[in-house]
Design goal:
single chain, about 200 residues, mainly alpha, Four Helix Bundle (Hemerythrin (Met), subunit A), about 0% strand
């Protein structure tokens, strides 16, 4: 009974937070609604026994990504945004089509799950005495090891691409040139100076 009440409470607040994210005109309020949605989604994960995923959602998404969004919004001037393009018929049509496709996919997924009455344990059987983190590791690094490596490579390519795109050459900055250091000779590296008596080296 208590679990059912908690489920409906978390699910209701999650839906309200999701609507607040997409309906708020102020980006700061949208991020705050997003944080609220993350907390309630973490509560739902904990209710179904996925404590690790719930805590991971709070630590990574709330503690890092949402804070990063807030930092970006506080450092960027949002008052100069031009909303004329967002009111065009093409933009409204594109939003309606995209939203309709996503809504149809959600409805089909729900109807398919209810009709087949399947559970995740039927696809990936895990022993009941196994801990949540151990079971997740077994599934992730055995059944889905190749998709996991593929996603890791995609993230690596994205990180390298971000570094390349944001790299700028600046004048007057001392940088290390490994090839030049290796190729130089003794005569180029050492200079023998014989100063005059009583005078220093300038």
């Amino acid at each position: 009974m208590i679990a059912d009440l908690l489920f409906y409470m978390f699910a209701s607040v999650l839906c309200i937070g999701a609507l607040g994210v997409v309906l708020s005109r102020n980006p700061m309020y949208s991020v705050l609604f997003l944080v609220l949605s993350f907390f309630n989604a973490a509560g739902l994960f904990i209710l179904i026994g996925a404590e690790f995923l719930g805590l991971l959602l709070m630590m990574v998404y709330v503690g890092a990504i949402a804070v990063m969004f807030l930092f970006v919004l506080m450092t960027v001037d949002m008052t100069t945004e031009d909303d004329d393009g967002k009111k065009s018929p093409f933009f409204i049509t594109l939003v309606l089509i995209t939203g309709g496709v996503l809504l149809g996919e959600i409805i089909l997924a729900i109807m398919g799950g209810v009709a087949s009455n399947t559970r995740l344990a039927e696809f990936v059987p895990v022993a009941s005495e196994t801990q949540n983190i151990v079971a997740l590791g077994q599934v992730l690094f055995t059944n889905y090891i190749y998709p996991f490596i593929s996603v890791s490579m995609v993230l690596l390519v994205g990180m390298v691409g971000a570094i390349v795109l944001t790299h700028r050459k600046r004048e007057g900055v001392m940088k290390q040139d490994i090839s030049e250091q290796i190729s130089r000779t003794r005569d180029e590296s050492i200079e023998i100076v014989t100063p005059a008596l009583g005078k220093g080296i300038s």
